[in-house]
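Page 42, continued from yesterday. The earlier attempt failed because a stray header line got pasted into the input along with the sequence. Redoing it now with the clean sequence only.
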Amino acid sequence: MITAMDSDTTNQRLDDPERFARGLGWFSIGLGLAQIAAPRGVARMIGIDDDETNRNTMFAIGVRELASGVGILTREHPVVPVWSRVGGDVMDLALLGRALRSDHSHRRRVAAAAAAVIGVAVLDVMAGQSLAGQRGTGAERRRQGIQVRKAITIERPADEVYRFWRNFENLPRFMQHLERVRVIDARRSRWTARAPAGTSVEWDAEIIEERPNELIVWRSLDGASVPNTGSVRFAPAPHGGTAVLVELRYQPPGGRLAAIVAKLFGEEPDIQVGSDLRRLKQVLELGEVVHSDAALHRKPHPARPSAQPIDPETAAAGGVS
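This time it went through. Structure tokens are written below.
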């Protein structure tokens, strides 16, 4: 059983315990959904009768697995939910031990299921011990939030790219999740962004460092619904144009669970920022965000840019609608 495992094995530390714990979280959710959706099938698979009692037991275990998985994925440092998985493993082994003694069970399948649970329990114990041994307070981890770093080269001079970005009211034109930015004064602005479930969030931000044509650094003010900091650097690219490097760190509205749901629907922050920068490149180089004909017609069409005349200088000044 778990208490008899070799101490050298259970005392191992994982290089990235939080990432490993997230894998266990997804495993819990997948297993829990299977047990909730098809308790009879799971019961037969592990070699026990699919009578009403066992079906109800499978359903209850599925709910527990689902709760453990959500708990792991929604916490910054999921020590407690990981150790709750260990407790669940012990309960599962007790139930399987009872099934092994039953004349109505397929004992070979039950034994195989018990061996699998023991293997998972070893992983759960290793994850729990590694998480418990990590240094750093919960507040420090919360401040880290979601971090994104993306770069792109734009075939326009650095001063032109800088001027376009420095007028923060231009940002919603290429940042898809921004609804609007209102400039308050030389250093402060109010941002409005789309949030989950069709809602919006607002916060005030201020510039904390600036070097014309080179760097803009900003942060949200105290009490922001989306605490964030960010920077954008502008530098001459080796083969011409301007290299733009964006770094963001923020807490998503709705917390970690909202971030996980967003990833499931293809809105991972890295992808969002990369798409935003590609739209910025199109606006500054072509004068507009390009949509292919294929996106506008139901039947297959070749993708091609708009034939509308382009005025890059107007685009940089914010005049392209």
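Notes: The first helix runs from residue 7 to 10.
Reminder to self: strip header lines before submitting.
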